[in-house]
From TrEMBL:
Organism: Geoglobus acetivorans
Name used for this protein in its record: Aspartate aminotransferase family protein
Superkingdom of origin organism: Archaea
A Pfam cross-reference name: Aminotran_3
Pathway linked to the protein: Amino-acid biosynthesis
SUPFAM superfamilies linked to this entry: PLP-dependent transferases (SSF53383)
Cofactor names: pyridoxal 5'-phosphate
Protein family (similarity comment): Belongs to the class-III pyridoxal-phosphate-dependent aminotransferase family.
């Protein structure tokens, strides 16, 4: 057992179940442990490292910003914050942005905004949805084992069955402030919303006048082969939450709103000391620029398709799903599959007893995809 692992047990709050690997460094799609062994990383810091580990373009931009200004708080204006908001408006089609430090903070802000703008209290979420671990985000997260120890949470919240039209219709009403959903459920194992389900959701919005929040914390910034999963479905939410790949691993998130929603917000409704600090915004701008310059949305689509086609050829794989480089598969023993792959130098994430998630950096090459598939083929035998 590593000395670092033993030291961690004595000083760190034991919230996490970790892989028994101490990571020392990483480059591109590869990470290296303290003993020098390398692993092909198909987890990417849980879909965060979008343009590859230790990306030199991002590092240089962060270094340049760190030499000028790291933090002054939101009592003042800073250029990187405004430039990032302008860039996000360009690629997302949303109108206004507020910066946070994480996905769960983005969800908290979104829930507050929805209540303020609608003057309603009720939220509707879905079976399988994961929105975060803080008290508001936890309230709209499906898994009871996450919620039950911390009751009472925010109320009222109803959970409709994901992709069930009847359940959705029964859950929403004139008291609903907002429906929050992952267009593609990530922590559940990569399960996309059906297009007819999405269509019906927006029809019900017109009927009951609630807001729609898209949680794109995991699906955003090229993960699905488009800038955002909403672009696949062709529907525009009222509010959108962002984080993860937004800064290539640097902690940053955002909540985006339409101009109409923004008109109902008042100064003082929300705030953040660190949210949108110059260093984080510079990291995010550099990440987006690198994605544009290197056609990573197209690479996400092509390499994701290569993964899915390869996986569909294995008898032990029961189901393959997803968009771009957000790939889910079902097997009889997900944990056993992930441990087998790790033992052969490939890291994947088992999200349940039978579901596996593949979410590598968007820079992954054809050769690296084929290497992973060759390891998976070994599992079949």
């Amino acid at each position: 057992m590593s000395e670092i692992i033993e030291r961690e047990k004595k000083v760190f709050i034991q919230f996490f179940n970790r892989y028994p690997i101490v990571i020392e460094r990483a480059k591109g799609c590869w990470i290296f442990d303290e003993d020098g062994r390398k692993y092909l990383d198909l987890i990417a810091g849980i879909a965060c490292v979008s343009v590859g580990h230790s990306n030199e373009y991002v590092i240089e931009r962060v270094r340049e910003q760190a030499e000028k200004l790291i933090h002054v708080s939101n009592l003042f204006y800073t250029k990187p914050q405004v430039e990032l908001a302008e860039k996000l408006a360009e690629i997302s089609g949303m109108d206004r942005f507020f910066f946070t430090n994480s996905g769960t903070e983005s969800v908290e802000a979104a829930l507050k905004i929805a209540r303020r703008v609608t003057s309603r209290k009720k939220f509707v979420s879905f079976t399988g949805d994961f929105h975060g671990r803080s008290m508001g985000a936890l309230s709209v997260t499906w898994k009871e084992k996450f919620r039950e120890p911390f009751m009472p949470l925010i109320e009222p919240v109803s959970f409709a069955e994901f992709n069930s039209l009847e359940s959705l219709e029964n859950a929403v009403d004139g008291e609903t402030a907002a429906v929050i959903m992952e267009p593609v459920q990530g922590e559940a194992g990569v399960y996309p919303a059906k297009k007819e389900f999405m269509k019906r959701l927006f029809e019900l919005k017109e009927e009951h006048d609630f807001l729609i929040i898209f949680d794109e914390v995991q699906t955003g910034f090229g993960r699905t082969g488009e800038w955002f999963a909403k672009d696949i479905y062709g529907f525009e939410p009222d509010i959108m939450t962002l984080a993860k790949a937004m800064g290539n691993g640097f902690p940053i998130g955002a909540v985006a709103v339409s101009e109409e929603v923004h008109s109902g917000i008042q100064k003082g409704d929300h705030g953040s000391t660190f949210g949108g600090n110059p260093l984080a915004c510079s990291a995010s701008l550099a990440t987006i620029e690198y994605m544009e310059q290197n056609n990573l949305l197209e690479n996400s689509r092509k390499m994701g398709e290569r993964f899915r086609k390869g996986l569909e050829g294995f008898d032990f794989v029961q189901d393959v799903r997803g968009f771009g480089l957000m790939v889910g598969l079902s097997v009889s023993d997900a944990k056993g599959f992930s441990q087998f792959a790790m033992g052969r130098g490939v890291l994947v994430n088992a999200t349940s007893e039978r579901d596996v998630r593949i979410i590598p950096p968007l820079t992954i090459s054809r050769e690296e995809v084929d290497l992973a598939l060759s390891v998976f083929e070994e599992f079949a035998h």
